[in-house]
Design goal:
Length: 147
């Protein structure tokens, strides 16, 4: 048979539980290290493996990308759009290189597939925006973070 115990007078007031809760709050407030960061003055260090804003590696303003089309092929979100062109020296390059930020899931597969180490994901995490943004080639070539 199920025995139902009636709570005592003190328990019915919840006084002990309230004091215990307040003690935990005060203990954390007074003695524990604060975890809140004063962004943007203070910034959190993310792991080196963090995948943030994309960038295209460029040397002297010339992108490493040879428009081989591997990254749009492996991209599961189909958010990379490249239009290939040819330079005077017959080298292929991306005339247009766009990434739809809203479709991208930051999986990093484009980075892994690239044979030229051209498309990378930086540690830049400030990417909030009010409108749907398509990152274009010139913008992507300016982003690096600390990589
Ligand atoms: S990170 Fe993933 S989803 Fe985003 S562009 Fe690269 S392959 Fe596509
Ligand atoms: S970024 Fe890399 S994988 Fe993508 S088209 Fe350029 S060279 Fe090919």
């Amino acid at each position: 048979m199920l025995a139902i115990r009636k709570p005592g007078f003190l328990n019915r007031l919840y006084l002990i539980e309230i004091i215990r809760g307040l003690w935990i709050t005060m203990k954390n407030f007074l003695f524990h290290k604060k975890v809140t960061l004063q962004f943007p003055e203070q910034r959190r260090d993310y792991s080196g493996r963090y995948r943030g804003q994309h960038y295209i590696k460029a040397v002297n303003g010339v992108e490493n990308c040879t428009a081989c089309m591997l990254c749009p092929t492996v991209c599961p979100a189909e958010c990379i759009h490249i239009v290939a062109g040819e330079r005077d020296d017959k080298e292929k390059y991306p005339v247009k290189f766009e990434i739809d930020s809203l479709r991208c899931c930051f999986c990093g597969m484009c980075e892994e597939a690239c044979p030229k180490d051209a498309i990378k994901l930086s540690n830049i995490y400030e990417m909030s925006q009010q409108n749907r943004t398509v990152y274009e080639k010139d913008f992507l070539m300016e982003q690096r973070g600390n990589k």
